Amino acid sequence: MKILFIVPYVPSRIRVRPYEFIRWLGKLGHSVTVATIWTSPAEYVELGEVQKICSHLLAVRLPKWKSILNAALAIPQKIPLQSLYSFHPQFAKKLSGITNNHTSATKFDLVHVEHLRGVQYGLKIQKQGNIPVVWDSVDCISHLFRQSAVANPKPISKWINQLELPRTEAYERKLVNQFPRVLVTSSIDRFALLDLLHGEDQYPSIEVIPNGVDLEYFQPEPSKRQDHTIVVSGKMSYHANIHMVLELIREIMPLVWEKRPEVKVWVVGKDPPTILQQLAHDPRIIVTGTVSDIRPYLQQASVAVAPLGYGAGIQNKVLEAMACATPVVCSPLAVSAIHVNHGRNILIANNKSDFANHIIQLLDNPEQATAIGKAGRDYVESNHHWQRIVKRLETIYTEVIAEREKSRL
Q: How far is Cα of residue 149 from the mean position of the Cα atoms in its chain?
């Protein structure tokens, strides 16, 4: 197949879903042209890695100020700010042009568009009616906003989420019937999108395509484990992760430190805001900021934690730690989209007291920690290998193309 893959941010090992889709589609023999938006010099550098895994690369710069202006222009239109945030009119025109070229040697069989931020490009191509478009919503964004409007630790972000919620619900309700297939990472997000339809007669085809783990990249290194170390990871500018880290340090760790004062916490991830950077004033806490490679932190920690209070989709931070055979303690929400077993391949805590007790339990029982870590690795090997996941994506593409051809007969 010849696929045009539109993603409104540069795919990378942090933005792992599109990165691995593209990489494995190429490994399976498909020609993938990636169309993407870059903003910063760092993202421009990342384009070099994308070029290695795709057949062709189309990239355009969208300055941050332009994205903010796009969002402002969305307000009077009563559509979500995110739906225009990454929109570049000239880029959209170019993409519409290459997908409308019937004589081109690079005529595409299918277009894949990721996220609410990319959906405008997909709608314009879908309107032409020449090529089927699959929209990967990734998460149900209104489901995320519903939680964030209550729990977001940033007052301005909470206010924006409250503003965005009704218009995002209305827009997602409209979008799900615009494409032959809509993809999400979990059944929770699928049901959340279906709930927006309020019992309408026509239901869209929403498919669950989970996230995976690069099992060759994330490997266990048992000889490097350090004693009494806890790691919490993720993109630290993301509001749900900020809330998670603050919950860990303010509510859970005092209970741990009461019994194990020597325990250290590594907060690992890019762009931590000031409120997280200030945590490093405590010598027991290290806030790394951006790291070139997250694996050493996952491989060397005694325990990985994810006390996620709100969020959507599959949590890559959990899967990556499990892939490194690091025992994980998490909240129920952090694993609500996967099928793990408490006490066998993970420990799930329902409150801060349980969370602290589970951490101490693993620190005090290395054999149990090793067993849970190994079972976690076994779980991701069986359920979250990217090759199997992308083969399912390949099947969906084939079905959509066949349906388009049948409709033309």
A: 20
Tell me the average pLDDT across 360-376.
Answer: 96
- The reported pLDDT for the residue numbered 200 is 64
Q: Are 8 and 37 in contact (CB under 8 A)?
A: yes
Consecutive H or E run containing 193: helix 187-195
Whether residues 178 and 277 share a domain: the answer is no
Residues 155 and 269 in one domain: no
* 83 shares a domain with 17: yes
Amino acid (one-letter) located at 273: P
Does 232 fall in a domain?
yes
Element housing 267 (H / E):
strand 264-268
| Dihedral, 333, 334, 338, 342 alpha carbons, nearest 10 | -90
Residue among 296, 352, 345 nearest 319 (CA): 345
Residue-averaged pLDDT of the chain: 92
Domain harbouring 396, CATH code: 3.40.50.2000
The pLDDT tens digits for 262-275 are 999 999 999 999 99
**Are both 376 and 396 inside the same structural domain?**
no
C-beta of residue 119 within 8 angstroms of C-beta of residue 12: no
Contact 119, 175 (CB under 8 A): yes
How many Cα atoms are found within 13 Å in the side-chain-facing hemisphere of 340? 34
Residues 55 and 167 in one domain: yes
Note whether residue 217 is domain-resident: no
Q: Tally Cβ neighbours within 10 Å of residue 357.
A: 17
> Which residues pair with residue 232 across a beta bridge?
267
Residue 406 tokens read as: 């049948």
> CA-to-CA distance for 169 and 172, rounded, in angstroms?
5
Identify the domain containing residue 9 by its residue range: 2-212+386-408
How many domains, the chain? 2
Token pair for 299: 């491989």
Amino acid at 110: L
Sequence-distant (6+) residues with CB within 8 A of 136 are: 17, 112, 113, 114, 115, 182, 183, 184, 209
